[in-house]
């Protein structure tokens, strides 16, 4: 499959990994929009939030919280761009985790 995030999962292209388990992977965004900008993805390919089955989100929420713990942050913003008109550029479900431990995140912030 010609999906850049599937290639990251399969280690065909490198990523700056934060955390991984059997089902999910978290890595640094290559073009950060905040002091901390992590992408959190399921290893299995789903086009976006609306195309993914509901039953992955319980475990995905747990994983997201583990990522925050690993980064030692309590305050963060989660965003998922669902569809082209919402700004989605990579069609493999991902949550952006944005944080600024030294201050406040600006809103709105385009990612
Ligand atoms: P979206 O616009 O919501 O689809 O977000 C895609 C995100 O993927 C953008 O923030 C990009 O900077 C990021 N991105 C694209 N390629 C890579 C890569 N190889 N490694 C890490 N992040 C990437």
- Which structural class do the helices and strands define? alpha+beta
Count of helical regions: 2
Largest sheet: 5 strands, antiparallel
Low-confidence stretches at least 5 residues in length (pLDDT < 50)?
none
Side-by-side strand order of the widest sheet: 1-2-3-5-4
Task: Look at the structure and give the mean pLDDT.
Answer: 95
Strand content: 15-25%
Global Rg:
13 Å
Kindly state the percentage of residues in helix.
10-25%
Question: What is the CA-CA span between the terminal residues?
Answer: 25 Å
Total strand count, please?
Answer: 5
Q: Give helix and strand order, one letter per element, not per position.
A: HEEEHEE
Overall, the morphology is: globular
Ions, cofactors, ligands: which are bound?
Answer: adenosine monophosphate
Explain this structure.
The chain is α+β, with helices and mostly antiparallel strands and 111 residues long. Helix content is 19%, strand content 22%. It contains two helices and five strands; from the N terminus they run αβββαββ. It has helices spanning 4-9, 57-71; strands at 17-20, 24-28, 36-42, 77-79, 95-99. It has a five-stranded antiparallel sheet with strand order 1-2-3-5-4, covered by helices on one side. The longest helix has 15 residues, at 57-71. The protein is globular and about 40 Å long. 20% of the residues are buried. Bound molecules: adenosine monophosphate. Adenosine monophosphate binds at residues 4, 15, 29-31, 39, 81, 87-90, 111.
